[in-house]
Amino acid sequence: MRYVDATSVGCGEALEVGQFWMSSYSVASSLAIEVTDASGGAVACGGTVAEGEALRVAVGGVGSASFNIGIAGATFESGSCGNARSYDSEADLVAPAAGASVTLVAGHASGYGTVYITESCVLTSSAAAAPSPAPS
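^ that's the sequence the OP posted. Answer follows.
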């Protein structure tokens, strides 16, 4: 057996239900990924964001816990594993080019024991709105 908490899951290990960490198999979390835009507005999973838009990702409803938020299709502004993982309670990213999808998933644990895995949150980027012409 090996001791692995949510912050030390290897870069090549998938954040998914059924992985064996900390003497037990990871299970589905009742919590969800929460995404907000630069103004603090909620961005719904399954929704569309403008390319280049600044976003913040967090796991809603978790108090004291260790985190491992993973991303595919983009990178966090800072983190581990080539910025594909963040061990903080929230992480920032910039939406990729139009047409690209970003998939987010998180693992969390409140110490040695079960690691809980959120459902994936997928966002799709669209072309940024063109600026309005200046009034004449």
